[in-house]
Amino acid sequence: PRLLSQFFFADERVTRVVAEINGLDAELDPQQYLVLLNQLHLSQAHLLAILERIMEECIPTQRHSRDYLVKFPEELLVDNLGNHMLFAAECLLAGTFLEVEEEDGAQLRPRARNLLCSLELVRTVLREQSLSQPGSYPEPVRAVLVQFDRLFAEFE
């Protein structure tokens, strides 16, 4: 029932799906590749939802303002904006085509890199915390969560 335990298992799921995708030849089995991509999307959404709950519990007064979200279309907000932002960041870093002007892309790539590096750090720190003291959030954990929340908001 603890959030850190839930995070640990959700993180394991994401890691397992990524490993399966990396070990698959998409050209030989395109159907399985699509199945795994869908599983990755769902497992990342679940991981981000748990991470959101952890931040609400751990750093509720230190969260970055999300007032700007009123500018986004309602269908994006209902359909897990965080997962869309994570996907966009991954695409920017991979050089995958996104409908972004080159100048905007040049500004967004460093932010995407910072966001994804911060997410990896959060995943590492929370995994370690879940294995050592799953019921507490010491200052180093809080610090990486605050940084991730700020970087995520800046990228949004």
What's the quick description here?
This protein has 156 residues and is mainly α. The protein is built from six helices and no strands. The chain is 74% helix and 0% strand.
- Taking pLDDT < 50 over at least 5 consecutive residues as the criterion, the unreliable ranges are none
Strand percentage lies at under 5%
By secondary-structure content and strand pairing, the structural class works out as mainly alpha
Q: What's the total number of strands?
A: 0
Oligomeric category: single chain
Tell me about this structure.
It comes from Ibidorhyncha struthersii. This is LST2 protein. The two termini are 30 Å apart. The protein has one domain (3-155). It is globular, with a radius of gyration of 16 Å. The chain has 156 residues and is mainly alpha-helical. 74% of the residues lie in helices and 0% in strands.
SSE inventory with pairings:
Elements: H1 3-22, H2 30-58, H3 74-78, H4 81-94, H5 102-132, H6 139-155
Helix pairs in contact: 1-2, 1-5, 4-5, 5-6
Which descriptors would you attach to this protein?
156 residues, mainly alpha, 6 helices, LST-2, LST2 protein
